[in-house]
Structures are given as C-alpha cells and as structure tokens.
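FAQ: What does the model actually see?

It sees only this:
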Amino acid sequence: MKFSKNLAFLLLLFAVYWSYKSLMPDYEKDEDAPVAEFSTDRALIHVKNLSKEPHGVGFPGHSRTRSYIISELKKLGLETSVQEGYILGDNASLTKAINILVRVKGSGNGKALMLMSHYDSHPHSSFGASDAGSGVATILEALRAFLSSSTTPKNDIIALFSDAEELGLNGAKLFVDQHPWAKDIGIVLNFEARGSGGPSYMLVETNRGNARLIDEFKKANPKFPVANSLAYSIYKMLPNDTDLTVFREDADIDGFNFAFIDDHYDYHTALDRYDRLDRNTLSHQGSYIMPLLAHFSNSDVTYLKSLDDLIYINLPFFGLITYPFEWIFPMLWIIVFLFTGLLVFGFRKKLVSGKGVLLGVLPALIALLVNGLFGYFAWKAIIWWYPGFKDVLHGFTYNGHTYILIYVLLSCAVCFWVYHRFRRIKTPDMLVFPIFLWILICWAVALYLEGASFFSLPVFGVLAAFFVILKQEKPNPFLLVFLGLPAIFIYAPFVKMFPVGLGLKMLLTTTLFTTLLFFLLLPFIGQLKNKQRFAYLSLFLFALFSISGHIQSDFDEKNPKPSSLLYTYNQDTDQSLWATYDHVLIDWNKQYLGKNKKMKDTDSYKTIPSKYGIDFTYMGEAPKKDIALPLIDTVRDTVVGNERILEICFTPKRDINRLDIYTNPIHLNSAKINNIPMSNYFLEKRKTRLVTHYVSDNDYTELGISFPKDSLLELTFYEASNDLLTNTLFTVPERPKTSIPMPFVLNDAILTIKTVKFE
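And it is asked to produce this:
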C-alpha cells in the first residue's frame, strides 16, 4: 500500500507538470512544411527581419520596418494600401500613424474577417521581436499559407498592420474612426505579446455576452486553446488595452486577443529580440490563426452578438469546456446539497465528529494565515534584500520563475508541516472545513466575479473523494489522485500566471493558490503517513532553490540591469542637471550623479510621465550645453466675449522624439492639437498634463486653447530627444553590456523645459 501511495504521489506530480506542458505545442523545425501549412520557421524569418533595430514611431527603424512588411505583402501578390494621418488617442497622445492594409476579396457579401497586429515597437530601445513582431510574422505566414491553398474565402479577409499601438492605440483609432473599411468588419483576430514566451492566452473583447463568440471559437477547434472566463472577467476590469479595445469601444466590433505574457522581463526592453522569442510560443500563435482563419473566413460573422455569457476553461484532453452563466447557482446548490448529505451521512455513521470538525479548522486557518503572510511580504522582502530589483519596474525579475517555485515549495512545506502536527485528526474530519471554505469561495466568485465560477468544478471532485473516504477504510490512492486531477489541471496554472503577468508583487496569489489547491488534494494527502518527510523535503528544496535564486540575482550580460540617464536644461532657471530614475546606480551613470542624495529639484520635474508613476531619484549638476532651443510662437491671442483664445506654434530646432505640454491647474473651455479637437471629457478629468506629441519627421506642433479671459495660463513645454548617447555635444559612453536602457520611462534623453505665462 505504501508503494501505491508513493506511486500515486508521483502521478500527482506528473499531473502538475502536464497541466503546464499541455498548454502549447512543442516547436519542431518545419521549414520544409507543405506550402499550404503554417511554418514556424518561415514565420521566424519574418521575426528576425522585423526586429533588426528599434522601430518606435519617429525612429529611423520605423520606416524600414514598414517597408519590409509592404514588400512581403507584395511578394504574396496582394495590393497594399497605406493609411496615414494625425490622430489623438484617448490618453491625449498625438502621433502621425501610418497603417498598412491589404484585402483578400471573398466570394460573398457578408462582413469581413480582420487579422491585426501592430508593427511599431516601444520607444526607444525595444527591438520588438515579440511585441509585436511575432504577431506581424504570424499574420504574414498565415496569409502566405492560406493563399497557397488557392481557395477563395466566403468573407473578405482584411489584414491591418497598425501603427502607434505603443503610444496610445492610435493606429487602430485612425482606422476605426476614418477608414471606410471599418464598417465592413465583422470580427477581429488580434495578435499581441507582453513578454517573450509562454502560452498564448485567448481573451475575448465584446460589449455584450461572449456566448456566440465562444461557440464559434470552439467550432474552429484550435488544438491548444488556453482560455478561461476568469481572465475574461479580470481583463474587462483592468486598464490594460490592446488595439482591439478601440474596435470594441469605438465601433462595437467584437474579436479575440491572442497574447503571451511569460518571460515578462523582456517586455518593452532592449532584450525583446529574435533570439529570445520562445519558438513554442510562436508555434502556439500559428496553431490559433490557421483554424480560426479557415473558420471565420467561411462562416457568417455578421451575427456574433449575444446577450448571454459562457463560463469556459481549458482542460488537458478535453479542450475548452463551456457552460452558461445560468448554471452557476444551480451547480452551487447541488454542491451544497451534496456536501450537506455527506455530512449527515458521516455524522450518522459516526465517521465525522463535531470535535474533529472543529479541530480540522485549525490547520487550514494556520496554513492560510502563514502562507498568506509569506506571500504578502514576499516582494517587499525580495527588494529589501536585492534593492537593484526596484529598477525592474514591471516587477518580474530574470529569476522570477525561481521565486515562484521558492514560494510554492515554502507553501507546501508549511501545509505538510501543519497537517503533520494535526495528524491525529481523522481525514473525514479534516476535510470538512476546507470543503466548506471552497464552497464559500465559489459563492463569493459567483456573486462578484462570475467568470471564475468554474472554481466549482474541482469541488465536485473533492466531494466525490470525500464520499470515497467515508465509504472505504482504505481507499485506492490512485482513485483519490484521479478525483483531484480537475483541481490540478485548473488551478496549477494559476499558481504561476498571476505573478508572471502582473509581477512578483502578486506572489500572494501563488502562496494562496498553492494552499487552496493543497486543500482540494487533502483526500489523498490526508492518507499519507509521512507528511513530516514531505515537509522536510519541501523545505530542503525551498532552501536549495533559494540558493539558486540568490546566485541568479546578480545582473550580467545575459540578465542586464535596467539603468537610466537624462540631461535636463531648464530655460526658466538656466539650470542644467543630470537625472536618473535608478534606485541603485551603476558606474555608468554614477560618474554623472556621484553620491548625490535626492535633491529638492526633483519636485519640479514630477510632471514627466512614466508608466509606473515614478519620479527622478537622483539629480546632479551638469555643464551647460549649447542645445538648439525650440521656437514657441504665439500666432493668435485674442479675447472674444468672456473667452481668451490662443494659438501657439511649437517648432523644434533640433531632432526630437516627443513633446509634453502641461498647464497650471486651470479650466480650459476647449483645446485642439494640430487642428484635432480634444474631448471635453478629457479636459474635465485631466490634472495638468495636456498632451504628449510623439514627433515624426521633426514636425511642428500647433496648439489652440480657449479659457476664461480672467484666468492665468501657464504652459510648460518638455521637449525631449533620445540621443544622449549619440549627440556630438556629449561624451556619454555606451552602457556596459551588463545594463540595458530602463523601459517605461523617458531615457537616454536630452530634455529642455520652458514655461510660458499668459497673464
């Protein structure tokens, strides 16, 4: 029997492994694949060519990347068009977006299928291999394979390679708001990335219910669907948007996002390169696009709206499991009925006792409390011990996967140890409170997070195991593991997903999911007599991987430290300063900032925007350089009634990449940028930031403002160029190979500041 339990435990561990392994295909060289099939190797050629250099909007590589895409589309015999124009995003970012479009004519007159990805990389240092060179490559290869089959689709197929996604979804907005083809779109398939590896998650974008979209997705039958309605519900609540969001919000067009989020440390960095893109991940994108392209190009995509929602979750061997929201509460009532019946049966047969049940509360609460505290303080402890990690702004370090494993092992050690200490509690008594807790969780998500209601599915498994334990003195361990498989297949991926996608500050979810999963496996684990040994083993592995994590904590050429340096010149004070966002300086920028502590001057620079809202950490005096200053010309200044109207032209006198304009706290009646009106909603909700213009071709910026005539207006212009390391006025050396430009902030920049007052 002991051998059987050990073997069953190994089976349990294999199930955990398979819950991850089965999520996506294994890459195999396929450059010789049939011409009508998707080839990962052929797609990789595109990724390599698309990521030779950074290619954000306004950077030299941007036009070269666009030219490559157009040339590849022409090779396929497709007529290519370009849509160009200024567009003001909802976040008040102004860009000149240049979209690339092709259309494959179908035999019918129904709505069209759109394939979409963006081709701009994040400024200023990202090579964009994954984000979103992988998406562009996936579409190019899919179009080639589809056209090679010489089949005529029923629906038109439109491919949009959007621009300026990284700057506010501006290319997508330009298409939706201004292109005549927008009205023809029935559904959109959008390919994205937020890292450089891992499975690609399917996320639905819709203003209504998801039922018909999910049904059609199932009919397409992709081999490796990774999707769940919890991610669907959470995604709808988060501010994270993709190009597809514009289609949904501005045109009520539904669609699917396919995005991978693992290896998050590469996101928006100079490490987003061809060689770091996970080949399995690109294969996964290919496994989505081909069956979906075949299905939606030949099915009716006009009527995909639905008022109904489906719960869905992918499971190994079963694919995508779905059921309607209407089943949520009936299933919960069935669970309550079964649980109550088992309790009554247990008490009548004296297999369950009141005292034992009460004692069974203690180990569960202790395990939850201890592991919850470990998870809550995990990231704080990590950055206290390794302060350099503070400069990894998204919070997922190069050894982030090791930290996840560390806290999984620590949580397991706590659980095994606690239940060893309470080993005298009979397994049936021990199970009652954890099952009751899970029922409470299921009711809570049904009320407040409906998409997570598949949480109830593994509860049926643990109730069945509870029944087996009540009926059998020595239950079959393999049967108990089998009944725990739904819990493993559903919850094990969540242990990793949240900290990978949202940063190690989410390690609390790792420790809690590990503990709650442990509870669902208690029917089997409770039968183990050597829980203390498993606790020691988990603790030993915890120590071993902690040492490994410590060894991996140093920055090196493979895992370089993010760093930042800016030169700032304030025209108003005639003061030049070096500045950085770094919490831990390296020799490269320390030579300019020395050992200066945070200066009060940082307060006057807080308006420079950054994704994570951080300010300069250190500033130090810098020599004054002969920087060509912009021309700020007041073209019109007049009063009409109670309103003062200003028209200002900002003309750069050097090559710049962006212009940020701020005002003092003042009510603006109206504003327009390059003749594009700003929304009244934005003007009412904004604080001091007015607009960010990501400049192409060194264009000027025209600003029109109206405000109450008795008000004082101050306009502050932050003009920035990302050429600090190449500008001949400076002698800043290249970064060491052990460092990369810090993403998400203005970096490697020459920044000038000028305030103009209108009294």
